[in-house]
């Protein structure tokens, strides 16, 4: 009786064990750890919100921190905040990420960057037919082109340094749950954030041999000055849809982001819904974590079903919400 | 005998329950988008997939307009279609990066019923070697160009839909590089991935206006564009993506048109593309309950397959670097 029961148990456990074993062999890039202590971490959009929280935490962990943003006075305030909280003196760089040459000059003047966190972002939600092309361009230029500028500028020295020290480096991109699914009001923002994933997947292929790991972070709505700005403009439908996932505090997101970067994960979800979203949208992304790969393979089918339920719900919300009058054409 | 029946029931009941649930859940409900007698506007329409689309749409009785940069190639295209089908297509010369020129062209062409944003440029190269100018070029043309077209076409498209009661369509030509980013494609994949975010959000915004969004994901296709790209490709990209085009432009065009007429959100073009589409279904809407069933049933195995592909690709990259170091 006991032996047939244990046989059945083995039969049940065996496929899971086999899968785990297969994944242990398959996962790429190979898992790594990215140390922060004593290394140079540069975070763009670092004078407020998630960026500032990341800078503060990294400084507390012993990293040499540089923060990059447009506004000089906000940067100085941020530097004060970091010094008061951690005693660490962060370097500040005032430059607009849209200015490729300015970014190149600024980064070349710094020490080589070991951990580059492209966290800058602007978001103006609106129906595309009502939104000005200038705003669309603004989001694409800052969120996407700005990231290209930062990576191009930091890469050469980062590669050299990784080679010399033998310690892995990291390029982390702050995406968003809007970079995993496009919803009403987010044509431009989702476009710019989806783009970061294509960039990241290809970039990881290109820099793996240089011992550089690419990380994408996917926070939900996070309590930041940026969100406060965004909420003023959000269409009603977008609010209803976005309520599907909980909000978070900047410091929580920062902690999760840094942990993900240190573990050299490719995708970093920030809460439970985010983890489900990551499984649903795993696509063909690389996955260095055996555990996450295991969850992805086992959870993919259920997550697709859940995703379809969400879309069913969202299309219902859209058809139930009266559309405000379009402006005269 | 009874046990067999029980087993059969145990297996089929959840399957049927799933199928029934999906039949209820799938959104948006599929519609038929007719093209006969309607205005089909195709960008990048003077060559490659765009030209094939224009020709096939003309044969099906659509009123076709093609937009491209070069006037000479537009002429050739128009003559070619006239010779092949007897149909006269309208031509418009504009650079999609120029929002004003695009607006003027769409105004001159009149309201569009089926907008096919098919234009695209691709220069594969490692990001650390590539000029930012080229990166910007791909983003401007592939992404901003599409925004310009949609913005300009939308108001008259909506009016036409209201007036005729027939659904309209905005079709966006993506690429398998818009489903997975690989070595050499940072900028191109960025621009194509972006189109998906755009499309998912856009479908939400336009569903109440009876406008359907479609995305087409061709593999490497035999076109002048591909020939151009192929010369520049890094070795590693060739090792990963294969060095020959997967499909002919006409076949891609046929699949695209069929998908547009069926208002499908995701349109793969071949078998590998279908598997890739299942693997990358993400949270995209899915109007076909049968495809949804396939997606749900095979999601896990497709993810596993995808991980095998990545394992292979990283091996290829590793080996190539080892060879380079030795030589």
UniProtKB/TrEMBL annotation, chain B:
Catalytic reaction list: sphinganine + NADP(+) = 3-oxosphinganine + NADPH + H(+)
GO CC term, one of those recorded: endoplasmic reticulum membrane
Chief location category: endoplasmic reticulum
Family: Belongs to the short-chain dehydrogenases/reductases (SDR) family.
Name this polypeptide is given: 3-dehydrosphinganine reductase
Pathway: Lipid metabolism; sphingolipid metabolism; Sphingolipid metabolism
Record's subcellular location: Endoplasmic reticulum
Iron is among the record's keywords: no
Single GO MF annotation: nucleotide binding
GO biological process: 3-keto-sphinganine metabolic process; sphingolipid biosynthetic process
InterPro entries on file: KDSR-like, Sc_DH/Rdtase_CS, SDR_fam
EC number: 1.1.1.102
Keyword Endoplasmic reticulum: yes
Keywords, in A-Z order: Endoplasmic reticulum, Lipid metabolism, NADP, Nucleotide-binding, Oxidoreductase, Signal, Sphingolipid metabolism
Signal peptide: 1-19
Source domain of life: Eukaryota
Organism: Zingiber officinale (Ginger)
């Amino acid at each position: 009786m006991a032996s047939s029961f244990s046989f059945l148990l083995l039969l049940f456990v065996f496929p899971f064990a086999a899968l785990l074993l297969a994944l242990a062999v398959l996962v790429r890039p190979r898992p790594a750890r990215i140390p922060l202590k004593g290394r140079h971490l540069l975070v763009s959009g670092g004078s407020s919100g998630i960026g500032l929280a990341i800078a503060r935490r990294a400084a507390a962990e012993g990293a040499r921190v540089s923060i990059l943003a447009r506004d000089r006075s906000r940067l100085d305030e941020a530097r004060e905040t970091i010094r008061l909280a951690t005693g660490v003196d962060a370097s500040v760089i005032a430059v607009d990420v849209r200015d490729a040459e300015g970014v190149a000059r600024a980064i070349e003047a710094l020490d080589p960057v070991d951990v580059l966190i492209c966290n800058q972002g602007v978001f103006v939600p609106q129906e595309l037919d009502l939104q000005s092309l200038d705003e669309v361009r603004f989001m694409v230029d800052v969120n996407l082109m700005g990231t290209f500028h930062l990576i191009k500028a930091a890469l050469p020295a980062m590669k050299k340094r990784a080679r010399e020290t033998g310690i892995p480096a990291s390029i982390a991109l702050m995406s968003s749950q809007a970079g995993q699914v496009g919803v009403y009001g987010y044509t431009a923002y989702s476009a710019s954030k989806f783009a970061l994933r294509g960039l990241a997947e290809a970039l990881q292929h290109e820099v793996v041999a240089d011992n550089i790991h690419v990380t994408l972070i996917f926070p939900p709505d996070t309590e930041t000055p940026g969100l406060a700005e965004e909420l003023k403009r959000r269409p009603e439908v977008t609010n209803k849809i976005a309520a599907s996932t909980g909000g978070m505090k900047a410091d929580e997101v920062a902690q999760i982001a840094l942990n993900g970067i240190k573990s050299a994960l490719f995708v970093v979800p920030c809460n439970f819904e985010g983890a489900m979203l990551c499984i649903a949208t795993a696509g063909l992304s690389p996955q260095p974590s055996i555990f996450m790969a295991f969850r992805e393979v086992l959870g993919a089918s259920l997550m697709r079903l859940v995703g379809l339920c969400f879309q069913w719900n969202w299309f219902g919300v859209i058809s139930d919400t009266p559309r405000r009058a379009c402006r005269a054409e | 005998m009874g046990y067999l029946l029980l087993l059969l029931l145990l297996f089929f009941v959840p399957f049927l329950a799933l199928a029934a649930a999906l039949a209820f859940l799938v959104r948006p409900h599929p519609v038929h988008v007719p093209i006969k007698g309607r205005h089909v506007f195709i960008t990048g329409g003077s060559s490659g997939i765009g030209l094939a689309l224009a020709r096939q749409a003309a044969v099906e009785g659509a009123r076709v307009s093609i937009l491209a940069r070069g006037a000479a190639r537009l002429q050739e295209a128009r003559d070619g279609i006239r010779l092949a089908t007897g149909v006269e297509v309208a031509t418009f010369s504009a650079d999609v990066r120029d929002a004003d020129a695009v607006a003027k062209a769409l105004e001159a062409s009149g309201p569009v019923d089926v907008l096919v944003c098919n234009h695209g440029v691709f220069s594969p190269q490692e990001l650390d070697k590539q000029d930012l100018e080229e990166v910007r070029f791909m983003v401007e043309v592939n992404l901003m160009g599409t925004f310009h077209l949609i913005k300009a076409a939308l108001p008259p498209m909506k009016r036409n839909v209201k007036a005729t009661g027939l659904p309209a369509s905005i079709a966006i030509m993506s690429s398998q590089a818009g489903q997975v980013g690989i070595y050499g494609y940072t900028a191109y994949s960025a621009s194509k991935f972006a189109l998906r975010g755009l499309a998912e959000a856009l479908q939400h915004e336009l569903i109440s206006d009876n406008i359907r969004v479609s995305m087409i994901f061709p593999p490497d296709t035999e076109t002048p564009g591909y020939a151009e790209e192929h010369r520049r490709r890094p070795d590693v990209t060739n090792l990963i993506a294969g060095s020959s085009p997967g499909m002919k432009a006409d076949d891609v065009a046929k699949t695209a048109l069929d998908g547009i007429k069926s208002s499908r959100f995701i349109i793969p073009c071949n078998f590998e593309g279908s598997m890739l589409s299942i693997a990358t279904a993400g949270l995209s809407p899915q109007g076909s309950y049968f495809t949804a069933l396939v997606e749900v049933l095979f999601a896990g195995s497709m993810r596993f397959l995808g991980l095998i592909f990545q394992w292979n690709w990283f091996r290829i990259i590793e080996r190539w670097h080892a060879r380079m170091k030795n030589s």
